Amino acid sequence: MFDDQSEVDALLQQMREELPIPAYITTASVNRLQRNGAKITAKKLVYIEGVDYFADHGGICCFMRLSKSGEQIALISLTHLRIEGHLLSDKIHDYQAKREKNLAIANGNSPIFWK
Questions:
Q1: CB 100 within 8 A of CB 114
Q2: Which of 12, 48, 82, 83 might form a disulfide with 62, Cβ 3.0–4.6 angstroms?
Q3: What's the predicted TM-score (pTM) here?
């Protein structure tokens, strides 16, 4: 398992209580979204409107609207978002770091390079 289920459940509940949560999409994810026609940049603030857990395959995923009109909607893994200055920022960063470390190990990368 990549995630500690009790930690995930606690973070999901905390995030749901704080919705919407402001976020920035990472550059790599923005590039993929743009290739699929989304009008988005890495500097554009978006809002997480919902969260759910997609098991080890997806981890915590976030539902967000990419445009004010709501025409563009995305489902993005929490590991592909930057959360800055929010009261849950530290907890989210901890989740992201643990998940990225566990995914790296599962893919055969050395944990030495991970905090």
A1: yes
A2: 48
A3: 0.86
